[in-house]
Amino acid sequence: METKLVRIAEISATSKHPIFTSVYHLINEDMLKQCHKELDGNKAVGIDKVTKDEYGKNLDRNIKELVQRLKNKSFKPLPSLRVYIPKGNGKKRPLGIASYEDKIVQMAVKKILGAIYEPRFLNCMYGFRPNRGCHEAIKEVYQRISYGKISYIVDADIKGFFDHIDHDWMMKFLEWNIQDKNLLWLIRKYLKAGIMEQGKFEPTEEGSAQGSVMSPMLANIYMHHVLTLWFKLVVQREMQGECFLVNFADDCAPRRRKLVT
């Protein structure tokens, strides 16, 4: 499984416009068992109340049945459980806690998407990426300010980014590199799975729940198309002088250095 993901990453890294038409089959018993192994058993449970230990007691049977449902498309994600955690500004951040089986499938999808998109993400992106994080983003901003010729900095935060991701545009972005209808079907299923809050079901017509295994990857793919590629292909070409972008999740800090003549 790892070898196949590495091969996907190599194709993505070396092709100008790679298109993947058959990757859904990688979500097999081996991959799902590996995802089960990697998941943190101490995380909060979803609406099914199933823990990692409970699911693992009949792991072989559970995984076989899961693979069969994925193959015949009878698989249906459960709604995420809506919970709230405090933010630094006194407000509360909504999180969506998926059921344990959904966490397994989401991690498998995340692995495939990571192999496809990680080689294509620009270096200015620091959120939810291997060996990158907020400290590295802050370090780059600090170095640019300390040693560069900076005219001005724009610090921007996209309000409610995760909660308002447009599903149609999300799918269009995915379709640019993925034409496996089965994988796209599964991702759309998760986007439309809905949430449960205080025992009441609410449909999800937009957004991708923070707290889910797959959401950070989907958010990065969306941001890759709407911000970082736009900055590289449009802003940098039209700007006089130099400009840089540092992006972390829904936060970004574009910086401009004026052209000196």
Automatic annotation (TrEMBL):
Pfam families: RVT_1 (PF00078). Residues 66-261 form the Reverse transcriptase domain. Transmembrane segments: none annotated. This is Group II intron-encoded protein LtrA.
